[in-house]
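Need residues for this backbone.
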């Protein structure tokens, strides 16, 4: 009976080692040359990606690092340090949850990035991460490096479990920040072509001016900048 248990545990460990990657894009698995890979050390827990809580980003792989497989593009990954320490020779246990770091990655197909940080060696050093978190994202192949921005503090386990300050939905996939949403694509396809716009002009009166002013106030800063770029062409 004991031998069977040992064999079962060995098979489970091998399976975990072979599945230390997480696919976070829709559809079938693609070759690594077509995706963006982000390695997350096992001491880091992913809180959100592009503002979304993503199921699978914190899948358990024992002490192995996990690799997130993503569509190429730009991502903002919120992650924090979490590790348990034995106290008094293992008589008690303390879990340290560090301050959140915001990692920005703009990766191309085939690239491999890794989230890195100054790794503490003692409990006292780990506790410093509760207030300050020196971390960065590095391109494994080229050495390109981007410093992470310090985010919020993890004040308690309860707020962390509840995802305070994070959206309620939990997704299995995540799209790049620069990816157009389905609604935006529909609006783009339904928008009139330049020729039809030029053929239908609005009258020059106070009502037209008022409408344009209202639309301007409703536009985001990015939309205003894009409009001004178009107007100066």
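Answer:
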């Amino acid at each position: 009976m004991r031998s069977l248990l040992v064999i079962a545990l060995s098979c489970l460990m091998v399976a975990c080692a072979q599945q230390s990657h997480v696919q976070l894009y829709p559809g079938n698995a693609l070759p690594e040359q077509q995706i963006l890979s982000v390695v997350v050390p096992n001491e880091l827990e992913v809180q959100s990606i592009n503002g979304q809580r993503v199921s699978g980003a914190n899948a358990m792989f024992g002490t192995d690092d996990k690799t997130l497989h993503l569509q190429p593009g730009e991502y903002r990954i919120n992650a924090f340090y979490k590790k348990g320490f034995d106290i008094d020779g293992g008589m008690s246990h303390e879990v340290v949850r560090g301050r959140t770091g915001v990692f920005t990655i703009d990766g191309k197909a085939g690239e491999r990035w890794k989230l890195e940080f100054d790794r503490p060696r003692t409990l006292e050093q780990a506790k410093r991460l509760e207030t300050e978190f020196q971390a960065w994202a590095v391109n494994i192949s080229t050495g390109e490096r981007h410093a992470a921005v310090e985010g919020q503090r993890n004040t308690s386990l309860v707020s962390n479990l509840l995802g305070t300050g994070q959206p309620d939905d939990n997704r299995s996939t995540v799209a790049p920040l620069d990816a157009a949403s389905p609604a935006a694509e529909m609006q783009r396809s339904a928008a009139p072509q330049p020729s039809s716009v030029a053929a239908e002009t609005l009258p020059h009166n106070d009502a037209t001016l008022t409408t344009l002013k209202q639309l301007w106030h409703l536009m985001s800063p990015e939309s205003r900048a894009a409009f001004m770029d178009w107007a100066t062409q």
